Amino acid sequence: MNGYQGRKVLITGGSSGIGRAAAIALARSGAHVAVAARDQGRLDETVAAMRAVAGEGQRLGAVAVDVTDRARVAQIPAEVLELLGGLDVLICNSGYALPGYVDASPLENFDRMIDVNYMGHVNVVKAFLPHFLAQGAGHISLVSSMLGFMSAFGYAAYSGSKYAIAGFAEALRHELRPHGVQVSLYYPPTTKTPGLERENESKPAAVWAFESESGWNKVYTPEQVAGSLLRSILGGRFENMIGWDSWLLFFAFRLMPGLARWMSDDELKKANVKAAQARAKVE
Ligand SMILES: NC(=O)c1ccc[n+]([C@@H]2O[C@H](COP(=O)([O-])OP(=O)(O)OC[C@H]3O[C@@H](n4cnc5c(N)ncnc54)[C@H](OP(=O)(O)O)[C@@H]3O)[C@@H](O)[C@H]2O)c1
To answer: Which residue has the CA at smallest separation from atom 30 of ligand 1?
Structure first.
């Protein structure tokens, strides 16, 4: 991807899945890249993977941070600006999903997903805003989810945190445009990442049946989604996603929400029947 040669990029959640694939693709494209996450071992491994594909003189590194720890987040702009020699693109990508029925999910799950997925992005953006405003240029990309414009049973807590990112991004775009700073929003599809594998461990059976049987739900690789995310930043459009299948759902839920809900309700009925049959087989 030519447009990233020499550009300075920070990716939160850059040590796994979509973020890691984006970091490696950026390093391969000649960018200076910093990855941020909590686990130092995975950060180090990602920096090594970036080095393996990068050229001479590229600045590559990691900052260990929990995006919910505001005191620590406040320290990272200085570290990143020194490491990269500036910052052109901030990609807020950290996040996780813990599916479950509203009825069965403790309130702490709702708090935690808002803290990590939504406030994590807000904390990082706030920390880097003085830099972008002083620079009068740059790009902030906020990673939400397709469950940030549509939703389904089992994802109430996650979806709420991802819709919140979309609302924040919309206002931020409006606010920063006069300052020359671009903002974009990315809605990833289902992507085969370590995060998805963890999510699947706690997924209720009917949610699993709903997703795996649905003709609407296509699964992508982290590399495919990272490529689409990085192209979206160069493209200059505000809302972005991969492939016609995602766009079809986006327009269905925006333009024909009644029809989209009717189809979704029908799939839910089938998923519940399938989950009940699977349960009966086990018993
Ligand atoms: N995979 C999907 O199907 C899918 C679909 C739609 C949207 N998304 C979204 O895409 C993004 C990337 O997902 P992924 O599937 O690639 O996940 P992943 O493989 O689990 O990677 C998540 C990354 O975020 C970091 N992270 C998590 N909590 C953090 C915290 N509190 N502070 C700092 N870093 C944190 C993780 O590192 P540490 O754990 O070491 O901190 C890791 O680097 C997430 O926002 C996710 O919600 C994913």
So the answer is: 66
